[in-house]
Records
---
Amino acid sequence: MGNKLIDLQGISKSYGKHMVLDDLNLYIRENEFLTLLGPSGCGKTTTLRIIGGFEKPDKGRVVFDGQDITNLPPNKRHLNTVFQKYALFTHLTIAENIAFGLKIKNKPKAYIDDKIKYALKLVNLDGFENRMADSLSGGQQQRIAIARAIVNEPKVLLLDEPLGALDLKLRQDMQYELIRLKNELGITFVFVTHDQEEALTMSDTIVVMNQGYIQQVGTPEKIYNEPENAFVADFIGDSNIIPGTMIEDELVEFLNAKFKCVDKGFGNNTPVDVVIRPEDVELVAPEKGIIQGTVTHLIFKGVHYEMEVMANGFEWLVQSTKMWPVGTKVGIKVDPFNIQIMNKPESEDEEAVGVDE
């Protein structure tokens, strides 16, 4: 990926007494697909609006390509925004909708016509020039909104939950479209979503946010496999999060049983949080498990079965391609590599960071 393109430095923003962003620092590289991910109210849309120039930070600077643009209005920035509400002009044709920004810039007609054709081709809507916007389906309107942003040749495309209103199949199609567009156009994408799967599918980099703070920045694999705290582990996919005690290096105790793990450096007899993904819980015959339990729920999910197992007073979530019927007595094993150890939050303030609103 390229050089640093956008640099948010010490951004804080409050509405009245409500602090939305607290000293946020983040940079976005050229040609990166970066996703701001988090629950509603975590500050991700505010961050996007500050990059776009629709909001001003109370403190901090927005630097774009080495230039301070904190006080520039949106139309003077080399970026375009696609909102969840597509905001197409329903009384205009598709061509007029797409050309809107170019006409404001007084581009010649032949140039505009070429651009419209190119943009419609990019979003797989060739030949739609003369249709009216309100005759299109939601997915088609969304693609027109993206085409309208692309023709302005922005360096950065800001996308605020743009797929939120689409049904699942269409959303998945649009995810592939967006990845393809990014690769073809070489534009930097900054994408806001609360949908973990969407973030994991599309991003080069994910920024997990909660309550105005960045919890973790990393690749989808890193965020999923090595979450830095219980909030991230819980927000990205399902997890079993169990309080435990690190007895010594590579040995942790939880639910009154000792498990080998690979983590070191937590000291002796330290309280920790233990995170185990449901696909990493191994169900075996009772006598072969480290602890024993009973299957209490079972759902077939297509690729795998999802089960709940009550063992040592904890309800384990388990995903397996093998089915264990409800009522079966089972043993539980976990490979030491699949046990993640997290520090417990030290203070109430840190604790708050790990709580979903």
Note: The CA atoms of residues 287 and 331 lie 7 Å apart.
---
Amino acid sequence: MNLNKRQFIGAGAAALAATTLGRLAHAQTGYPVRDINAVIQWGAGGGTDVAMRGYAPYAEEALGRKLILTNRTGGAGAIGANFVLQQPADGYTLLMGAEPQALFRVMGLADFDYNEFYPINIAAIANTILLVARPNAPWNTMQDLLSHVQANPRRVRQYMAGQGTVPFTVNTMMTSLTKFETIMMPFDGDGPAITSLLGGHVDIGFIASGAVIEHVRAGRLKALGVLSDKPFQGIAPMTDAPSLSALPKYLPWGSWYGVFVRKETPDNIKAVLVDAFKKAGNNPQYRSMMEGRGTTMLNLSGNEAQAFINRWQSTTAWLYHAAGAAKVDPATLGIPKP
């Protein structure tokens, strides 16, 4: 083979190698090359939906692509989470999730929880939870409601979401301390329940302040108490009712909102998403919106986010176990006591 032919072949091989390496580099650094689907586990208008739809535009700025948000409700969030698990682990399907998923195995709802996902970002925790009532309700305080419920068991209609949700958990706290028998009205998240409260079809509900505070301020809903031992924006703490004075042993507690991908997603794609959502979480407009709704910003990712989930899971799983609400002993799942 003469020198020119060797040079030609060598040049061709070099060009092919360069093209291959270029494609690999693009695969590593070019993500995302198209818009990204994001699945919200809960219905429109609820706490998770409001938090994630407010979050998305700032993440889009950092990613340079649109996030196509879709609500997939049902099964206390298991329907949406399972859908994401069935999609390729390529970073093009995100889960915009909330706290109930941390309890799927404890409550027997699914054979997975967040152990199958990687936490891109835990944006915020709604640790200000209000007990709200329809606007024309005859009660003005927590004690008013308790006295009425205890004198008229199973007459008051209470909003109830799936196991592991805010309404379920706060009701569990209540019933561990005092008699509280109501009619449970099931809804797929806060949004539909708020609509029914506004229309007077449901009497009361435990809901994170972010989803209802504007309705309370406008007089469309009545706030009877806040899950705390301190007042919030003029709303009295639930502990003002003597039988609920022990509530602080469960606190602070609240729902939280975050973004996840399948655990098998390549590290370089995870890194791009972590960076984008970290920037979104630092956006002053987003922080102002969330904090104005009584939500505490966290902006945690990776190991910090996982540690946060583990702590929350431990506290809540063992609360359920002590109250007899857990379907599976947390110890058998390797969940340590808090």
Note: Residues 3-29 form the longest helix (27 residues).
---
Amino acid sequence: MKNYEVPTWAKWMVYTFTAGLVIGSIVLGYYACQDSEARKVALIAIPIMLTIAGACIIGMRNWRLSVTEDSLIYCAFIKTKEVSLKDITGYRLDDKYAVVETSDPKVKSMRISIGIKDKEEFLAWLATNYPDLNAQDYAREEEEIMVDETFGADEEERAVNLARARKVASTLSTIGGGLMLWGFIYPRPYELVLGLSLLLPLVALGFYRVYGGQLRLTTGEKSAYPSLAGAFAPALLLLLRALIDFDIWEYKMLFISTALIALLAVVVIIADPRKVYKVEPSFNALLMGIVAVGLLYGYGASVLANCYLDNAPGQTYATEVLDKRISSGKHTTYYLKVAPWGPQLKADEITVDSDFYEGVPVGSQIHVTLKPGRLGAPWYVVSL
């Protein structure tokens, strides 16, 4: 019998986190005794913090992975699974888990964390005794490609086309990842990085149509079919830049154009006369992915078209800074509370960048320029 344990560093990390939650609960309870506002927060936060702390301790104490002479036993948190070794049909690996497939109807699969001591020994035991189902699937898919006449006249041509498809997918995905870093960290020159981000998903969609099923959208890295999913990453960049760089006054027209672009993306996939989408492992996953990417891309592209291409001078209004605050979370946001201006009939907050925030004291005057928007969605720019 072999027992595998959680690494010591992981135990210390969990117990340190748990201690932090308990100490935080005590501190929050102390302040709750002094202040009524803190008491309201404490009534909700303390039970949640202590519940999480308790779950961490229980999970760590109960964690167990054992290989006996005739069974594999795994317990995570409070649920224990046990399967006979003769019922294991194979395994699949990813970066964090080993998924053990079984023929036992009571235990269809066991998802086992491989962040354990003696990890290599456990993986070697799996590889020695059971087949790698990912490798089997990869070989089967590659064989499918080699006999599919739609991918080439003979096996040699199909192999060449597959190698070319993999190179296209790898290149476009690498460009997509590079654009994400470039556009988020330092988007200069602005027109170039956003222009490429607008273009790349369209190029990827074109290749998807041209290759007729050899390139796919919903397969992972374990598949023999190369995936274009990474080439659509700039859609998220477009959304982020739209949210960070432009302040929208009225969203109605943007929502309409976003929905139309997402619908067009679905139509482009579904209307393919060869019905390439039917070769995807899951049509539902494909449809959800296309809609999600279409919405991200559609909103980003709509905002850029509406604001960046808007050359109208707009109407400028003077207003007074009434208050200012900083919101710190995953991202730091700077707010100015300003007096009513133009169509804004009551005092409200606007967002600005850090330099503008630091340079404007409470009580000073700033200007807000309201522009009509190229797509008819009004937006504004704040200036001194």
Note: The chain has three domains: 2-133, 149-308, 315-383.
---
Amino acid sequence: MAVGPTQVALARAVERIPEVSALPGGCRYEPKWDGFRAVVTREDAGATLRSRRGTDLSATFPEITAAAVAQLAPGAALDGELVVWTAGRLDFEALQERMGRGPRTAAAASRSRPASLAVFDLLAVDGRDLRPLPFDERRALLEQLAASWSPPLNLSPVTASRDVAVTWFETYAAAGIEGLVVKGGAQRYTAGERAWLKVKRRTTLDVIAGAVIGSREAPQQVVAGLPVDGRLRIVGRTGPLSPGARVGLARWLTAPIGEHPWPAVVPPGAFGRFNAQNGPVVLTLVEPIVVEVSADAAWNGRGFRHLLRFVRVQPEAEVASVQPPP
């Protein structure tokens, strides 16, 4: 297998945990880690850690590449998720802070906020490309390889039992696990394709609609706010509204009364790093109202990293009663 940027296999979202027979060879269920996807390759001269998009992260996470050099033979390539743990819970903010470090401070950061690599697939061993093999064969080889590992290299768990997967889905949320990734036991590793499935744990909550993208008469997306640090802060936005949702929402939207806490134009990063636009975003400000949305686990205390789903307007709810998630 050639050393260098490796295109990774992907998953498409589904609403329910699939039945065991949903994928070729039967479903294999794994935790969906809240981190950064990464592939580590062990070469004769050392190890390289790359992001899903091919960015070289070797100098940013020296503890991972050092572990790869010490614990892997040349010619190995692993697919996994970079994570940081704080007090027994996945800490995406700490991981994001690590991503922003330069090589000069990476060594100190690796000691104060060490990362781990949760490995869930084996792409190559001894220079042999394993991606054409069925998942069950790759997994068996990965378990053999991982038997001698120690942190920060960790083997991600897997189960063929849907009942066990349901238990994981319900109980692992407390540790920050986003949901499940589901693979077929007979599936090969199809780089760049969404052959796997993923299901995220979602909750409904009230947010404050302080603006929309589009017009008040034909809103396209809701701009969500929550009280953070004593002020109404933009914390995210919904995906595109359905035609019915646009009509239902529009009847409750009115022009702001008095001074609005938000500007009419916000910078591209106003919705968070993972919702950034190419340029400034024009908002249509409205008198704040309460709406119910569906959100996954990606709340960081100041915003939602992923798009929200609009559920309904809550016209009877008081704006002052809305609080951020715990």
Note: The radius of gyration is 22 Å.
